[in-house]
C-alpha cells in the first residue's frame, strides 16, 4: 500500500495546479531574495562602513518587510505564498501540505534564490554578493538557536495570518508577516544575520562561494518552524476547528 500511496501523492504533486504553485513560489521567492540581497548590496555601495552603520540594518529590515509582504501577497492565492523552506516545513509538519509537495516547493525556492543572487552578481559586476554570517562572539549552536526562535515567531505568525478565524483581519496577513520579519531582522541582524530563510542564506552563499555555517540557517530554523506548527494547531488552539484546509499550496 505504501508505494501506491506514494505514487498517488506524487501524481497529485505534478498536476497543472501544482506546477503553477511551484512557478508562483519561484517567482515570489526570486523577488524576495532579489530585494533583500540587493538592499544589502546597495547599503554597502552607499555607505563607507555599512558593517557598523546602524542605518544599513534598518535599510535591510525595511526591505525584508516590504519584499516579504509583497511576495506573500502575490503568491498567496496560487501557492500559499510560503517564500521560505522553513515556512513550507512548518506547514508540512502541521499536515497542511504533503511532504512530496513540500519537497517540490523547496526546489523552487532554492533555485529562485540562487538565480536571484546570480542575477545580482552578473548585473552589478564589481559588487560582491553578501552572505549571512554570525557574530564573532557567538557560537554556531547559539546562532542556530537564535535563528530558530526568529523562525518560530515568523511561522507562528504565518499560521495566525492564514487562520480563517481571524475574519476580516486575515486580509492584512501578508503585511503582518512582513512586519514580523522586519522586526526580527532588527532584533538579531547583528548577531546571527537575521536570515530566517534557509533558501535566502543558501542562494547568497552559493553565488559568493562561501558555504561556511550553513547549518546555522537550516537546523535551528527547521526546528523552530516545526515547533511553531505543532504548537499553534495542537496546543494553543487544540480541539478547535481552524477551517484550514489540507489542500496543496494553501498554507497561508
From TrEMBL:
Pfam families: MIP
GO molecular function, one term: water channel activity
Transmembrane segments: 20-43, 55-76, 96-120, 141-160, 172-194, 215-232
Membrane topology of this protein: Multi-pass membrane protein
Highest taxon in the source lineage: Eukaryota
GO terms under cellular component: membrane
Subcellular location: Membrane
Location, primary (coarse class): membrane
SUPFAM superfamilies: Aquaporin-like (SSF81338)
Keyword set, alphabetical order: Membrane, Repeat, Transmembrane, Transmembrane helix, Transport
Family to which the UniProt record says this protein belongs: Belongs to the MIP/aquaporin (TC 1.A.8) family. TIP (TC 1.A.8.10) subfamily.
Protein name: Probable aquaporin TIP5-1
Organism per entry: Durio zibethinus (Durian)
Amino acid at each position: 500500500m505504501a508505494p501506491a500511496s506514494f505514487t498517488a501523492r506524487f501524481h497529485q504533486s505534478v498536476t497543472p495546479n501544482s506546477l503553477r504553485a511551484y512557478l508562483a513560489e519561484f517567482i515570489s521567492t526570486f523577488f524576495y531574495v532579489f530585494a533583500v540581497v540587493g538592499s544589502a548590496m546597495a547599503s554597502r555601495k552607499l555607505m563607507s562602513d555599512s558593517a557598523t552603520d546602524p542605518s544599513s540594518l534598518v535599510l535591510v529590515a525595511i526591505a525584508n518587510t516590504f519584499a516579504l509582504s509583497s511576495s506573500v501577497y502575490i503568491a498567496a492565492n496560487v501557492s500559499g505564498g510560503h517564500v521560505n523552506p522553513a515556512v513550507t516545513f512548518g506547514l508540512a509538519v502541521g499536515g497542511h501540505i504533503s511532504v512530496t509537495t513540500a519537497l517540490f516547493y523547496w526546489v523552487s525556492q532554492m533555485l529562485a534564490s540562487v538565480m536571484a543572487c546570480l542575477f545580482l552578481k552578473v548585473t552589478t559586476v564589481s559588487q560582491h554578493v553578501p552572505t549571512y554570517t554570525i557574530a564573532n562572539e557567538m557560537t554556531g549552536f547559539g546562532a542556530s538557536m537564535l535563528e530558530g526562535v526568529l523562525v518560530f515567531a515568523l511561522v507562528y505568525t504565518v499560521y495566525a495570518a492564514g487562520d480563517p478565524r481571524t475574519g476580516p483581519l486575515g486580509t492584512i496577513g501578508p503585511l503582518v508577516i512582513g512586519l514580523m520579519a522586519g522586526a526580527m531582522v532588527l532584533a538579531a541582524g547583528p548577531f546571527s544575520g537575521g536570515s530566517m530563510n534557509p533558501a535566502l542564506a543558501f542562494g547568497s552563499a552559493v553565488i559568493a562561494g562561501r558555504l561556511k555555517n550553513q547549518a546555522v540557517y537550516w537546523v535551528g530554523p527547521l526546528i523552530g518552524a516545526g515547533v511553531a506548527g505543532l504548537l499553534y494547531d495542537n496546543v494553543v488552539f487544540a480541539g478547535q476547528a481552524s477551517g484550514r484546509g489540507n489542500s496543496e499550496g494553501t498554507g497561508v
